[in-house]
Amino acid sequence: MTADAAAPARRDTAVQRSWYWYDWANSAFYTTVLTVLFAPYMITVAGRAAGCVDADDTCSRTVSLFGLHLAAGSLPSYLTSFATIASAVVLPVVGVLVDRSPHKRRHMAGFAWAGAACGSLLFWLRDDQWQIGAFAIVLSSILAGCSLVSYYAILVDIADPDDRDRVSSRGWAWGYLGGGLLLLVNLVVVLGHDTFGLSKEMAVRVSLLSAVVWWAAFTVIPYRGLRSLDAARTTAPARAPADAGLWRASFGQLARTLRELPRYPMTLTFLVAYLFYNDGIQTVVASASTYGSKQLGFSDSVLIATILLIQFVAFGGALLFGRLAARHGAYRSLLWGTVAWMAIVLAALVLPERSVVPFLLVGTAIGVVMGGTQALSRSFFSQLIPTGREGEYFALYNACERGTSWFGTLLFGVVFQLTGSYRPSILALIVFFVLGGLVLTRLDVERGIAEAAGTPVVPGSDPGSAPPSA
User: Fold this and answer.
1) Which pTM value belongs to this model?
2) Which pLDDT does position 50 carry in this prediction?
3) What CATH number is given for 12-237 in this structure?
4) Which residues form the signal peptide (predicted)?
């Protein structure tokens, strides 16, 4: 696409508003399904299959999956781990497919609708039939990640570099709003299931189905609203050499980037730190409902209300950390964020059972720090990317994140299987924030920015003296 052809789309706020709607669409799946309802319900169904006396209690009995004996209470963690590993293999290939295609919106919508179709099978997760839920959650999670590859790539087509922060932030805000709104509706359905003539399990199944229907239905808006991007492309997209297959081209590009990373040691340092602390963040969020339900004994109403609270507080947390970054720098703010995460893990460890107020306070803290650290990580990393290599390095950023984000969920599941309690599992997660914080302290911000820009590095520079934007 030439610059002139791209200009109308870049200035078209209607096109940008259409793009926002996909964040609104897919966030419902991540919030209602992956964060809140799936894990506790899967443990209940798998526990029933394992022969637990009361499937609503913590169950350490096992079910068999491909010859492996897995604790029913650890099954959601293992499924999440497998889905993220598979995504790390699939997403680089999808990235090359997107780069070689002039129809990014079609790939985005196609993957979304396929993911929603697989996710709809969760409605049949009932009785002791946990296998269909395992199949559905793995495939829908992978396909959701594939759709996001195209979604992020479209941002480059609809916003100039100095406008992408605004456009991206608004899309993120729409995602919080959409995911929170449907979660609120599902809270009403699950809590008032008798009013609607539903059993509790049926209410959960309907809520799971509503999330994928929401995802599929609202994807129609960006699919139709972004049609002008196809018309604006008057030149073919860059393609790999004709003799390079799709797999070879994708992994070859990733390998070249990895070989060059040692030339940018500060970029590599931050990437390693991010992989650690982000893994901890993702595992805390993914495991919160399981910990609250199975270890602390809270009802679904408390759990969903807490996740809903986190959903909206996270938006405010991003704004708060943005102000901290403007005053003290993103680097210092991220360091403070990792320390705050350590405190949150320790607080969660000693939470008393069935005590709602302390649980809500910890949930509020999670929302503030989660929104802030996630918002600043991407913007800070962008300053450490070599000039003109943004797409390539963000592809590495996403591929590495997918490839290692299973460590936390795997550790959480293994510790539970060994101990039969979720408290040691939560405590084990502090190692990710400790390691992430320690690696961050090794980062020289000014040197990293200078290396990325290709300018000489001033000897003895002090990372603490970096400008506030860093």
Assistant:
1) 0.74
2) 72
3) 1.20.1250.20
4) none
